Amino acid sequence: MTLVIDGHSYLYEMESLCDVFFPYEKVTAVYGDGHDDSLLVYTGYKEENGEARLCVRVKMEERFAEKQGVFSLKEPDFERQCGLAMAVLLFDILVELTGYRPAWGVLIGVRPIKLLRKLTAEMGKEQAAAYFLNSLYVSKEKTELSLRTMEHEQPVLAASRPESFSLYISIPFCPTRCAYCSFVAQSTEKTGRLIPQYVELLCNELVHTAKVAKACGLRLETVYMGGGTPTTLNARQLGQIIDTVSGHFDMRTCREFTVEAGRPDTITEDKLRAMKERGITRISINPQTLNDTVLRAIGRNHTTQQTLEAFRLARQCGFDNINMDLIAGLAGDSVESFCRTLDGVTALEPESITVHTLALKRSSHINQNGRVHFINDGKSAGEMLRYVNTVLTKKQYIPYYLYRQSRMVGNLENTGWAKPGFENYYNVYIMDESHTILACGAGAVSKIKHPYKEELQRIFNFKFPYEYIGRYQEMIDRKDKVKELYRQFLQSSTNLTN
C-alpha cells in the first residue's frame, strides 16, 4: 500500500495506524501528492489564516472516503494534539471502509499502562480513563483492563529503588524454530555444536557483569533466564550457569529467579531437579495451545500430553510457582479450540498464565499477504481475549502487566495474569523500564536506567551465537560502558542538587 505524507511530520503515527488495519501489507511512504495505488492513503497538512487544515483520503480498490479537519495553531501542545487529530481522521475512515474497529483505538504505543499512569499523575484517574475512552478511542473493555493492570503493578513498581537492577540471561537455542517466531533463536540442529563454548563464554560474561554491578553499587532484584529455550541445555549446563550467578552476584536482595523452561519436550526430571536444588523460584512451561493439530501447524514438536506430563513432573519436583504461556490468534485455531485450551490450562491451576496475541513479524516463517482476512482474525482473537478476561477474573487471577507489539493480530495485547502474590517482578520492570536491566548472552540488550530521570541508554550484545563467540572481547568491552554511564548519572544528579 502507498501512504502519502504531504506537508507534515506525522509519518510514524500514520504508518502505525496503517499497520493496525493492514498488518500484512508492506507500507510504502511517499511525499507529496499525485501518487496512485489500489490501496492508497493520503494525509495532508496545510496552514492558512492561523489554522492547520488537515485532509485524509483513503482508496481501497473501488471504495473511497475523505475527511477534513481544522485545527488552531494556538492550541496548547499543538504538535501532539494535531498529530492526534490527524490520527483520528484516518482511524474513522478506516473503520468506515473496513467495518473493523480496533479495541485500542488510535493508541499505538507499546506501553499503554505506563502512559495511563503518567496521565493519572497529571489529571487524576477518572480524567485519565476518560482520555483513553474519548480522545484515544480505546474501548471501555481495554480501558478497564488498563486500570486494573495499573493498580496491580503498582506494588511491584514501588519495590524498585534507584540502585535496583535486574539480570537477564539469554539462551538463544531451541529444538526447532516455531513458524511464528521472530526472535533471535537458533535451532539446535543448526547450531547445537556451539552450545558448550557458548555456555563457557556466557558464564565468563556473567562473572564480568557481576563485577560491573558491584562497582556501580547496584542492588539485584530479579533474575530471568529466557531465550530461545533455556532447557535446550542439559542439566549440567543449566547448573553451571545458575551456579555462576549465585556465586558471583549478591543474591540476598534477589526476589525471584525465573527460568523459562518453555517447550515441554525439553523438560526432564534431571533438569528440573538441577534448577530446584539451586533455588530457582519460578519456571515457565509454555504450551501455547493444547490443540495438537495447531501445534503441528506452528512447528512445535510436542504434544498436549507432553505439556501435561511436564507440568505434573514440575509439581513433583517441588515447583510451586509455575507460569504457562498461551497465544491467541494462532493459524488454524478457533475460538472454541482456544477456549478449551484455556479451560485445560486453568484446570492445572498454575500460579500465573501469560496470554499473548500472535504478532506476525516480517522475519517469521508464516508472515502472510492479504488485505481482508486479518479483520476476521482480529475479531476471533478479540473473542478469545474476552474469554480470558472473564474466566481468569472469575478464577481470582489478576492482570499485573500488559504490553503491545507491532503487527499483532487485531492490534490487541499481551497480558500477564497471576494469582495474588505470584506476580513476576521482572516482567513488570522490563516493560515499565523502571530500573536497569543488565543482559548477558547473544541477542541480549542491557537497558541502563538513570536512577532519577526518565533516561535510558542501551548497550547491545551481538545477535547470533557465532557472533557472540567470535567477537566476545569486543562485547565485554561494551559492558564496561555501564560504569561510565553510572558515573555520568551520579554527576548529573549531584549537579541537580547543587
Task: Write a concise synopsis of the structure shown.
This protein has 498 residues and is α/β, with parallel strands linked by helices. It is built from 17 helices and 18 strands.
CATH class of the largest domain: Alpha Beta
Categorize the overall geometry: globular
Helix content: 40-55%
Number of helices: 17
Assign the CATH topology of the largest domain: pyruvate-formate lyase- activating enzyme
User: Low-confidence parts lasting 5 or more residues at pLDDT below 50?
Assistant: 363-376
How do the strands line up in the largest sheet?
14-15-13-12-11-10-9-6-16
As a whole number of angstroms, the C-alpha radius of gyration is 24 Å
Task: Give the end-to-end Cα distance, rounded to a whole number of Å.
Answer: 55 Å
Secondary structure class reads alpha/beta
Please count the beta strands (DSSP E, at least 2 residues each): 18
Sheet having the most strands = 9 strands, mixed
CATH architecture of the largest domain: Alpha-Beta Horseshoe
Whole-number average pLDDT?
91
Query: What percentage of amino acids are in beta strands?
Result: 15-25%
Number of domains: 2
What is the CATH homologous superfamily assignment of the largest domain?
tm_1862 like domain
